[in-house]
Design a protein that fits this description.
The protein is an alpha/beta fold and 253 residues long. The protein has 2 domains: 78 residues, no CATH class; 151 residues, Rossmann fold, CATH 3.40.50. It contains 10 helices and 7 strands. Strands 5-4-1-6-7 form a 5-stranded parallel sheet, with helices on both faces. A hairpin with a 4-residue loop joins strand 2 and strand 3. The longest helix has 19 residues. It is elongated and about 75 Å long. The two termini are 15 Å apart.
């Protein structure tokens, strides 16, 4: 609840309510707050804002190149390696399937994880539990395992199904991999989430494992630059996710 209230748009909507209340008492201050909150809502919905937050504030690593992917291929000279996909939520029930399903964000990560596993021959794991706001008996990792089996005809080597956030993803997944003799983790998550995820996994792994970032879905600019600063639902989602990551980095979560 605190996270929801602190992040836009809730914080900006509260600011607008405050400006309306101030209009009769301090019209000048109320007017300034109205302009600022309205401008904030506009920027909150722009892809350009998300791109700036990504490149100037979060600064995630670039996507793996074709050369880097080939270098990860299983061979006798390579250290024991695991590809680990971080969860991004699940829907408790998808009526069309009659069971739980992964969110769109989680599916983007999972698809890339499977793609990497097939091209490198490295085993695949998934870290995703119940989340702070989720209910139901089935964890996200269990849903992912079923999706991998049904949609890709393969299986997960490891699943971590008790975590509630990124820090717990790392704290619970690293011991599982360590017991399997893994010395290198290829970490798959969204580009905006990668700085926070890398910090958590490096803290959990210490010097015993190397963590390699494999980000997906970095924010890119539109072919028409002006459109980056036009409000859109897509822009709102991107900015919200980026601000969530900024808040997570600041609070150490």
């Amino acid at each position: 609840m605190l996270s929801v209230l602190v992040q836009p748009p809730a914080s900006l909507l509260l600011l607008i309510l405050l400006s309306v209340w101030l209009m009769r008492r301090q019209p000048r201050l109320g007017g300034v707050l109205t302009v600022l909150s309205t401008a904030g809502l506009w920027l909150m919905c722009c892809v350009g804002t998300a791109h700036w937050l990504q490149d100037s504030v979060l600064r995630p690593p670039p996507a793996l190149s074709a050369v880097q992917v080939r270098a990860l291929a299983r061979s006798p000279n390579q250290p024991p390696t695991a590809i680990v996909v971080l969860g991004a939520g699940r829907h408790r029930l998808a009526a069309e399937y009659g069971t739980s399903s992964l969110t769109q964000q989680a599916m983007v990560r999972l698809r890339y994880g499977v793609w990497l596993a097939r091209r490198t021959g490295q085993p695949l794991g998934y870290a995703g539990g119940v989340g702070w706001a989720q209910i139901g008996e089935r964890s996200e990792a269990e849903t992912a395992a079923q999706t991998v089996q049904d949609d890709y005809g393969t299986s997960l080597r490891w699943t971590e199904s008790r975590s509630r956030d990124t820090r717990e993803n790392a704290d619970l997944m690293v011991p599982i991999l360590d017991s399997a003799g893994i010395k290198r983790i290829v970490l798959v998550t969204h580009a905006s989430h990668m700085p926070r995820a890398m910090r958590a996994f490096r803290d959990a792994a210490g010097k015993g494992m190397v963590v390699i970032p494999a980000p997906v879905a970095a924010v890119t600019r539109d072919d028409q630059p002006l459109l980056d600063w036009m409000p859109s639902p897509h822009g709102f989602v991107l900015v919200y996710n980026a601000l969530h990551e900024v808040l997570g980095l600041l609070t150490g979560s």
